[in-house]
Input
Amino acid sequence: MIRWKSFKFGWWSLAWGHRQLAVRSALCALQASLSLFLCSFSIDVDHNYWFAACQLVASLSLFIQWRLANPHMFLLRSAVCVLRALICCHLCFCGRTSMFIMEDCASSGLADIRWPFRMFYAIACRLEFQQSPLDKDCPWFPLAGVTEAVGHEQLWYRACIRAVGIPIQLARGIMKPLLLSGTIYQRDSVEVAVNFARAALVGVTVWSLHEQWLTSGLGAKVTVDEEISSTKSGCSADDSVSS
Output
């Protein structure tokens, strides 16, 4: 038992990337599980399967970057952000219809009781597109904003962008029963609960990004128990979203 614990600790501490990358990898996996959970209740399957796929890819890329500090993972997450933005764009204009059958597009949702939720997706689309260039440009400017005290500036920017997701998810969870109950668009209570769960996960993601920003400066201490690559202080210890 003691040997197993020692091995597990060593496996964790010898990763080349910042440990907050592993935290956000787990958070992305939890977001994916929530998307698949909604699919199990047949809730917006056309989009949630795609969201789950994006979240799983983001989780895997964060895990690889944590273990190997591979900067190519930024490009992968940038592509994931673009795909998520396109999904949100379709939800904004066409609602919960197939993304591959344009004849089913329900644009009427922009003018009826569902319009606030369409606007939430418009905001999410904008945020995902804004996130994508941050991921794409990060490997080429690994020390932007890095000082003795704090890490890469885009960790701070990304935390601010992700923080917008908290009120969006809370508003969705509160407004669905208030506006849609008793209508043909009424949402299942499971979906409302998932909105609140996502808000909590986004909050932890924001904390993780901020914590990494505070602890990945050039003056960060390297203990005997940790082998941290020189890229820790740069952008290679960054993250995408969350989602």
About this structure: The chain has eight helices and no strands. Residues 20-96+110-221 form one domain. The radius of gyration is 19 Å. Confidence is low (pLDDT under 50) at residues 1-12, 221-243.
